[in-house]
Amino acid sequence: MKKILLAVVVILAVQSLFLHSYKITSAAMAPTLLAGDRFFSIAFHNPIQRGELVVFRFPTDDPDEVQCGGTQYGKNFLKRVIGLAGEKVEIRNGGVFIDGKGPLNEPYAKYLDPVRIPAAKRELSAEEYQKVWEARNLAKTAGAAVRDEFGPVTLPAGDYFVMGDNRDRSCDSRYWGPVPVSFVKGKGRYIYWPPSRTGFLR
User: Fold this and answer.
1) What is the pTM of this model?
2) Which of 29, 68, 85, 175 is most buried, taking the most CB atoms under 10 A from its CB?
């Protein structure tokens, strides 16, 4: 009996420290994850790589900051890591370029709209554009055009550029800036609900 109780305590301790459950509430990650899917994430110890799925707290400490049509303070997001610290990220006609090379081969990406939004007239210098983006104000300045024509910006040390797989329906780093590593909670690993969709995330 004592061994069973000890095993239960160990399992619960491991879960509380390393394994967490989340529910998807939007279509931003379709088709990889659908609204209503429930998945596990694990704490990360190895460096985060491009293409991995990460869970993070929305990167703001201001409860009144408005992004994506509302306040996102304290909410958990799941997105795919596209850019790493020090890299130059740019989007041209919807395709992602890293350090001028691309577009990336992204079999997970989904594009719903038949046409791309053209680039807005650039009113900012490259330096101003970078500062506005880091301050999470780019969408307020450039509008919807950042969906398909974005950057280039250089990721600060310790930050990630994240995007939803459903590229035309995801509010992500294009709009509200980078994700500091301090906001990352773990890596998305396994869909456990509904039963018809169970499996490891890729």
Assistant:
1) 0.88
2) 29
